[in-house]
Amino acid sequence: MRTPVRSAALLVAAALTLTGCSTLIPTPQETSGSSSEVEAEETTAGELDGVPATGATIAGDGYTFIAPAGWEDPQQEIPGFDPDSFAADLQDADGFADNVNVLKSPVGVVTPDQVETLGLKELETVGATDVVVHDRVVVADSESAHISAAMSSEGVSYVVDQYYVSSADQTYVVTFSFSDTVPAVERQQTAESVLVTWTWV
Questions:
Q1: Which of 21, 25, 51, 54 is least buried, going by the fewest C-beta atoms within 10 A?
Q2: CA pair distance 133, 88, nearest whole angstrom
Q3: pTM of the predicted model, to two decimals?
Q4: Would you say residue 154 has pLDDT above 50?
Q5: pLDDT-based confidence at 145, cuts 50/70/90?
Q6: Does residue 60 contact residue 172 with C-beta atoms inside 8 Å?
Q7: Counts for the chain of helices (H) and strands (E), in that order
């Protein structure tokens, strides 16, 4: 029996209570001077090789991406959450609607170094566990940090994978939220299937 659209959207809202608040977006105070405080490490960002998603095209401010098949914008108001773009698996039958949302950084561009230092502190502050900094990846010619963490809100446990895709003057925080039963390899395949379709417009 499939989860009704209304119920799925409400379960998505539980996850967005935390991840939708951009917990990994540094505040203007945090980014002030942080480029000199954070030592640049020698890193190599990997190219994505995921199979492109085949679902609906989702448009945001200055970009588009293709969602996984069956994922769509629920077109339902979620109190306290106003993403730049959003898509969810509204037919998910495991009690949690896997989803992706995109938020614009309020400070413009955020560097991978800032994400990998300040972001970890922010996640710990909101009670995230199993926080992992993964290898960076290249998304639409942008070097992106990738952080994952286990979260819990209102009795719902889930896992998030966040990526930071930047244009010349704006970073977009791309958050994938999954049921905590979804294997890491499947989460990565889903996220990369979307990220390889990211296009600047």
A1: 51
A2: 25
A3: 0.82
A4: yes
A5: very high
A6: yes
A7: 5, 11
Domain encompassing residue 84 = 5-25+53-200
- The 10s digit of each residue's pLDDT in 90-100 is 888 787 889 99
Radius of gyration of the chain from its Cα atoms, rounded to whole angstroms: 16
Joined together, the tokens standing for residue 141 give 């010619």
Q: Order of strands across the sheet with 199-200?
A: 57-60, 63-66, 199-200
- Residue that the structure tokens 């900094």 belong to: 133
Per DSSP, the three-state class of 63 is strand
In a domain, 195, yes or no: yes
The CATH number covering residue 173 comes to: 3.40.1000.10
Are 85 and 58 in contact by the 8 Å Cβ rule? The answer is yes
DSSP state of 48: P
- pLDDT tens, position by position, 35-57: 333 333 445 678 898 899 999 99
